[in-house]
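wait is this the right file?? whatever heres the structure
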């Protein structure tokens, strides 16, 4: 049921030649596919030019983490301001976080978390936004590392020398409302909603309005995690996406409530080599709290 089909006064034209050429050039620069490392591989890999990042609450980090891992907390990855607290933080906030953990553009950045990839994927998206495509994901995160017997340590993160990080925000991996409205119904695009089925259908409310973006595909982010394999990615990941119409020839825009759960769907598609993936960082907390955005409900 389509509830609204409003006029779109804030639509901006992004089809000029300069924009198209810039966008194509950007996709070429991030076409490098991130690496998916199995936990066991970390026993023998040469990690001297790595920055290992554990995304978690500090209390969880101090209990167990990989040696030399640096901590990034979820709140450092979001702006934190209602009504869309999951939006990308300021350039200055991102730079401060990167400087604190010793970031350098020449480092390979290995990501993991303690929840099966949501926050790790959110950081992977952030790295794409700043043009750093040299990153990887440790499959399953801390739970899989522990199950595999990989040595872990406890305590606070090691102190590292702060670096000078000067970044540029590349907007191509970012989707805004004005990017989504013109492509609703397009056969060349797919919107992937990573929320629960109840949120998608509109039977569970997490914003002023319920439902989903018209035409969106729903794959709950939990379906990408194999709980029988310590939250590793499911082995039928590619088929799961393709069977739901999320195919690699399309431009895919993924979101959830705050671009946390969709961090996993974004990362999964990047790991599979999908060439054109974006994240709507405003997500449903923005879309569902406006009165001028179209929605569908299924009840």
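ok assuming it is, sequence goes like this
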């Amino acid at each position: 049921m389509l509830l609204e089909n409003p006029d779109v006064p804030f639509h901006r034209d992004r089809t000029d030649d300069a924009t198209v050429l810039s966008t194509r050039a950007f996709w070429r620069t991030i076409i490098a596919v991130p690496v998916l490392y199995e936990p066991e591989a970390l026993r023998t890999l040469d990690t001297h030019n790595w920055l290992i990042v554990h995304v978690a609450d500090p209390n969880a980090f101090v209990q167990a983490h990989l040696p030399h891992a640096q901590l990034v907390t979820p709140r450092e990855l979001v702006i934190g301001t209602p009504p869309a607290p999951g939006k990308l933080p300021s350039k200055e906030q991102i730079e401060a976080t990167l400087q604190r953990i010793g970031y350098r553009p020449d480092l390979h950045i290995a990501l993991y978390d303690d929840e099966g990839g949501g926050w790790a994927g959110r950081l992977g998206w952030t790295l794409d936004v700043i043009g750093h495509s040299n990153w990887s994901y440790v499959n399953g995160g801390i739970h899989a590392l522990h199950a595999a017997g990989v040595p872990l340590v406890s305590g606070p993160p090691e102190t590292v020398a702060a670096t000078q990080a000067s970044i540029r925000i590349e907007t191509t991996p970012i989707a805004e409302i004005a990017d989504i409205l013109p492509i609703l119904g397009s056969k060349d695009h797919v919107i992937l909603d990573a929320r629960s089925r109840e949120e998608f259908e509109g039977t569970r409310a997490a914003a002023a309005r319920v439902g989903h973006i018209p035409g969106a595909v729903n794959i709950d982010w939990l379906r990408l995690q194999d709980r029988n394999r310590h939250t590793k990615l499911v082995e039928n990941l590619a088929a799961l996406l393709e069977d739901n119409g999320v195919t690699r020839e399309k431009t895919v825009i993924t979101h959830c409530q705050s671009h946390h759960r969709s961090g996993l769907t974004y990362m999964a598609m990047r790991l599979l080599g999908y060439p054109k993936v974006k994240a709507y960082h405003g997500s449903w907390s923005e879309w569902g709290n406006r009165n001028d955005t179209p929605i569908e409900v299924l009840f």
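Confidence is low (pLDDT under 50) at residues 1-24. so i think its the right one actually
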